[in-house]
Design brief:
With about 120 residues, this protein is mainly alpha-helical. It contains five helices and no strands. The termini are far apart.
C-alpha cells in the first residue's frame, strides 16, 4: 500500500508535471491534481487501516455503504465548490489583464509596471 501511495501521489505527478505540454494543458493539470489527491487518500487509508488492523489484530475493509457515503460527501464538496466558483464573486478579474510574459525578466518588469500603475491610481 505504501508503494502504491508513493507511486500515485508523488512519482506519477512529478513525471506528469515535468512535461511542459502537461503543465500548460488544463486536463494535464487536472489529472496531476487528482493523482495527488488520490495519493493523499491512499496515505490516510494506509495509516488508519494498517494501524487499526495492527492494534485490533483483525483484518478490515470498508463496506460498500461506507465507500458510497465517502464518495457522496466528496462529490457534494466538488459540486458545492464548482457552483460557488461559478455563481459567487469569489475570483475578481482585472479589466485590463497583463499580456503573457515570455521570460522571467519580462514577467518581473510587467508586474512592477502593474504595481506602479496601481499606486498611481490609489494616490
Amino acid at each position: 500500500m505504501y508503494w502504491l501511495e508513493i507511486t500515485v501521489g508523488v512519482i506519477a505527478p512529478l513525471i506528469l508535471f515535468s512535461i511542459s505540454r502537461v503543465r500548460q494543458n488544463v486536463n494535464g493539470l487536472f489529472t496531476g491534481a487528482v493523482l495527488i489527491i488520490l495519493g493523499f487518500v491512499l496515505n490516510r487509508m494506509n495509516i488508519t487501516i494498517t494501524g487499526m488492523e495492527a492494534w485490533a489484530g483483525v483484518a478490515y475493509f470498508p463496506s460498500w455503504m461506507e465507500i458510497t457515503v465517502t464518495v457522496a460527501i466528496v462529490t457534494a464538496g466538488f459540486v458545492i465548490f464548482s457552483l460557488a466558483a461559478r455563481y459567487l464573486p469569489l475570483f475578481t478579474h482585472d479589466k485590463h489583464p497583463l499580456p503573457a510574459p515570455h521570460s522571467f525578466d519580462e514577467e518581473l518588469r510587467m508586474v512592477s509596471m502593474h504595481q506602479d500603475n496601481l499606486s498611481e491610481i490609489r494616490a
